[in-house]
Prior knowledge:
35% of the residues lie in helices and 15% in strands. By secondary structure, it is of the alpha+beta class. Flavin mononucleotide binds next to helix 2 and strand 7.
Amino acid sequence: MSGVVSALGLAEDDVRGVLEAASAAPSIHNSQPWRFVLHPDRIELRFDPDKQLRATDPDARELRLSCGAALLNARLALQGLGLRPLVTLLPGRAAQGTLAVIRRGGWFTPTEETRELLRAITARRTNRHPFTDAEVPVGHRQRMVRAAELERSWLHVVDDPAEQVRLRELIQRAHKQQLVDPDVQAELTGSTGDRADPGHGVPKSSAGFTPAPQDEWAFRDFSPGSPSARPSGKDYEPNPFVVVLCSFYDGPLGELQAGQALQRVLLSATALGLSASFMSQAIEVGKVREELRRALGGSLFPQTVLRLGFGSPVPRTPRLPVDDLVVPPFSVIPGS
Ligand SMILES: Cc1cc2nc3c(=O)[nH]c(=O)nc-3n(C[C@H](O)[C@H](O)[C@H](O)COP(=O)(O)O)c2cc1C
């Protein structure tokens, strides 16, 4: 690791700000797989293969979604500095293991929406607690659907009751399969509380309540072995506002687009005062994902499932120091 230096014609402090924004993104199990190579004329986004959760995420799909989310934050941070980022996704053989390259594309005047999304970067959290029963207003829904479209992805709103029941069943089925898979469980436990590597993982304070028999939706339990008691009357909303974020392509390009869309949706939601949590199980179990894909009409590729609503504030999760995210130019990250 080489630490933050100036890049893209920006002073070191500005580069540091861009990387801090990028690393505030959500990532699967808070694994923070993103790495950066800083050049005078460009920033390369890479991934650390050691951060892949090989049982939960065997194809590194969620690793790339996470990196896509970090990329969107970096783009917004550069726009906030008055610079138009030019992004090449998957630049190819010349830069193996590189997910994206960012170059300068002239000046940019930040819009009010850019400023709003920028403020949301540090305010956003995954909120695993119950939300209120207040409905998500139609205007809010439309803004989130548009956010996904802007990033060349599709946000499918699951508001048909029969479709909700079907999705709930698929998530339950995938969740049960994961519960009996020792490797998936080991990755979950290893990312939880004190067992996570320093700067990584989901602390108990962010874990949400321990699942209870009356829960209709299956949430991942980030406090296995140390149950967090649920105050009475604090059940999960029975009919949450649920969306499936989809890409138009299968594979790394669609995943990087969907990761950016995921983050634009989450930041828009945060700016609107909404909270969000994930239910990725149905997408992590291959056969169940295929069933979900067919249930959605067969032409889209489901990438993640989100529950959105009005919640109470929750604490932030840890992050690695940004100096640790910078890798030297021309280095090859093993396995990437
Ligand atoms: C692709 C992806 C999938 C995720 N899936 C789940 C999930 O199934 N359940 C869950 O509770 N959190 C899930 N998360 C949320 C992460 O655990 C969370 O982003 C991470 O712990 C960092 O916390 P923060 O979002 O509050 O910054 C997912 C995040 C990403 C990017």
